[in-house]
Amino acid sequence: MDKKALSPVAFLICLVVFFTTRLAYARPDGAAYYDKPDGPLSYNFYDRSCPNLGMIVRWGVWAALKNDTRMAASLLRLHFHDCFVDGCEGSVLLDDTKDFKGEKNALPNRNSARGYEVIDSIKADVEKYCPATVSCVDILALAAREAVVMSGGPFWPVLLGRLDGLSASEKSANEQLPSPFEPLDNITAKFVAKGLDVKDVVVLSGAHTIGFAQCFTFKRRLFNYQGTGKPDPSLDSSFLSNLQTLCPNVDKSNTKLTPLDAQTINRFDNMYYKNIVNNTALLESDQALIGDPKTAPMVKDYSADPFLFAKDFAASMTKLGKIGVITGQDGQIRKKCSVVN
């Protein structure tokens, strides 16, 4: 019997059914969960004005990950960097103008933040079906969730209804974003300033279960830890040797990429915490979590219980998505994510 290939339309329908079914079963507390507003935001904000929004974002993220598996971590990081700098208002997506220097070229983002073109592409598709309706910041929040789910991580309901901001600040990004070179107390203080807490530090750091880091972000651990001229003594010796081979102590290796979790590179799981317990965390700021009495018990709990990590990660991402939200007359729905209307 002849086997007929699926038409493109049938193939798309199958994919939509697959992803929609998968996500529906992952929803906590059933569909009624989505009827609960949270201040000016709600889970069903676009149900009438753009009913296909979820499908469009899901398809765009799927296509991006199919082309580049690293993009999952990049989209998640982009969402974090957006919300952590003056709130979730899409400022990280803006290009520089004559009126302001934006966040794209701030030190934490320059030559490292990625995924702008993915959000721009999804936005263009959304505009075709729902013109001047959906904000770029909401698209980014949804894309980050889809990237995690498609990498094997947890689903969480995304509150919607944010507006895009009208400006961006390179200075704010340089000052507000946590750095892998900072002490844990400094990083925690930056989280607290955003209405988060030490638990959120541990939980959201778990995003480092996917993605890559450039050698310069951890090289001092390998050769000159805290100015001693020696490696970080907490590093596993075999892990240290491998890293010194991958990232030799020469300037030209600074931008080489190394997976944050070499055990399950593209899978969103709790291996990150197991690495910390085993002294094989890549970043100094990550390894520090096991050395603090406030954070060490949580690291051990998450290393032993992937379901606990998944549940708490979903909760912390919901908190992150509510930082500094713009509604009412203070923002806009950008037509293009890189420029103010």
Short summary:
This protein is an all-alpha fold and 341 residues long. The chain is built from 14 helices and two strands, in the order H-H-H-H-H-H-H-H-E-H-H-E-H-H-H-H.
Overall pLDDT: 91
DSSP helix count?
Answer: 14
Helical fraction: 40-55%
Structural class of the secondary elements? mainly alpha
Number of strands: 2
Relative strand content: under 5%
Radius of gyration: 21 Å
N- and C-termini, Cα separation = 57 Å
- Major sheet, described briefly? 2 strands, antiparallel
Mass-distribution shape: globular
Low-pLDDT windows of residues: 1-6, 16-33
Fold and architecture overview:
The chain has 341 residues and is an all-alpha fold. The protein is 45% helix and 2% strand. It has helices at 8-26, 53-67, 71-84, 116-129, 136-150, 170-176, 184-193, 198-205, 219-223, 237-246, 271-277, 284-287, 296-304, 306-320, and strands at residues 212-214, 257-259. The protein has a two-stranded antiparallel ribbon with strand order 1-2. The N and C termini lie far apart (57 Å).
Compile the SSE list and pairings.
Elements (H helix, E strand, L loop, with lengths): L7 H19 L26 H15 L3 H14 L31 H14 L6 H15 L19 H7 L7 H10 L4 H8 L6 E3 L4 H5 L13 H10 L10 E3 L11 H7 L6 H4 L8 H9 L1 H15 L21
Antiparallel strand pairs: 1-2
